[in-house]
Design goal:
It comes from Caenorhabditis nigoni. By secondary structure, the chain is an alpha/beta fold. The chain contains 13 helices and 17 strands. The chain has a domain of 120 residues.
Length: 401
């Protein structure tokens, strides 16, 4: 832990009286917290700190954390990443107690903690962010709203601070792990466009939103995502569970086809509330079924970090000529591998139903599972395979080429 105080029986070094070259030699050995401490001494030291040669850093926020509020991450090459965590703490006594009671402050050498002695408030948090950003000019990485219990009025204060502090620019990633009314407060009051939103509320409700989201990531059952939210988010990519029905998805696709909404959409992956029935979902969309065996198209997603092959699917053309392909994920996606037998079986079933004159109201499909040699627990294997295939028939995917 760095400190600006002088140890007993030692004299301070008149650093500012040294020649510039000598000072630079000293500064080169300082870590993030030593630079920060120096920058808080006076306007002169702050100006010097801003002009020092410093490591490139990224900044993350935990505004609702009890102590740790800001993390500067620095890549130290062979040493790996170092995480410098600024902890707002009301007194030295409390900090000493934390050091004695919680060994995680000392256990991980890559995590380095530094106290900022002040009362925990939005004002203190804001001043610290402004000062650290002014000195280190870090890249903004993410904001993490995480708290088991939070006063909604205090949350609003933090949200208003972020909305008003334009120097952060667009937030690359926000993680929200709060539930109930607090999550509703977040959705209604956050106003900044977001790169990636990862939201994991245990409970929530529908409410209006007023910001865009490039990438929506969510897994469990979602009660707060409806079409009004999706239209306002105007996502480029979205992967989420929904309560949408086949009829709902038909309206979603018609909005896209007619150019009314979702104009930025590139990749959508929705787990809907019932088994996908393509004739019902694609009614009135002039969809063209492509052959799973011969049509393979490659697409990139997740900021180009993942590459998949998509086989077959239904092509739909938008009024401006853009083409989207919709279909399953489980039965139509591969990663540089051959088609699995169940993919071919499902395709044959889809073709048969699509070309029939009956509505797609057949009963749930009964899969026949072939157990490969070497499987120890055949019953568990069959149950697992059937469960995956049932779930696969609830998953809708859309790619816009």
């Amino acid at each position: 832990m760095s400190s600006s105080s002088t140890p007993p029986n030692r004299k301070g070094i008149p650093l500012l009286r040294f020649p510039q070259l000598v000072r630079n030699e000293v500064f080169e050995y300082w870590d993030i917290f030593e630079i920060y401490q120096f920058s808080t001494l006076s306007k002169v030291t702050k100006s010097i700190s801003k002009n020092m040669k410093k490591p490139k850093t990224s900044m993350s926020f935990e505004p609702l954390g009890e102590y740790d509020k800001i993390t500067l991450t620095s890549n130290r090459g062979e040493e790996g990443y170092k995480y410098f965590k600024f902890s707002i703490c009301p007194s030295t006594e409390i900090w000493d107690t934390l050091l004695n009671e919680y060994d995680y402050f000392r256990r991980y050498l890559s995590y380095i903690y530094h106290p900022v002695f002040a009362e925990n408030s939005v004002e203190t948090f804001g001043s610290l962010v402004e000062h650290v950003q002014d000195i280190f000019e870090p890249d903004i990485e993410q904001v993490d709203f995480k708290c088991s219990s939070i006063d909604e009025e205090e949350l609003k204060l933090y949200l208003n601070w972020f909305n008003g502090y334009k120097q952060l620019g667009k937030i690359p990633e926000i993680r929200v792990n709060i539930s109930g009314l607090a999550f509703k407060v977040f959705l209604e009051n956050w106003k900044l466009d977001v790169g990636t939103l990862i939201a994991t509320p245990e409970t929530s409700e529908l409410c209006p939103v007023d910001f865009k989201v490039d990438h929506l990531r969510r897994t469990d059952c979602v009660k707060w995502v409806d079409f009004n939210v999706l239209r306002r988010f105007d996502c480029v990519e979205a992967s989420t569970d929904t309560y949408f029905s086949n009829e709902n998805m038909n309206l979603f696709l018609k909005d896209w086809k007619e150019g009314r909404s979702y104009n930025r959409a590139y990749w959508m992956d929705f787990l809907i509330s019932e088994r996908v029935k393509w004739k019902k979902m694609l009614e009135g969309l002039d969809a063209e079924l492509r052959d799973l065996r011969t049509v393979r198209r490659t697409f990139r997603f997740n900021d180009n970090r993942q590459v998949w092959d998509y086989h077959g699917g239904f092509d739909i053309k938008r009024i401006d000529g853009k083409v989207a392909t919709v279909g399953y994920c489980y039965f139509q996606v591969t990663e540089n591998e051959p088609l699995r037998p169940e993919m071919l079986e499902e395709y044959d079933r889809v073709v048969r139903v699509w070309n029939s004159e009956d509505n797609d109201d057949e009963e749930e499909v009964e899969d026949v599972i072939v157990v490969p040699e070497g499987v120890v627990d055949e019953k568990r294997y069959i149950e697992s395979e059937k469960s995956e295939r049932r779930r696969g028939r609830y998953e809708f995917m859309m790619i816009v080429w």
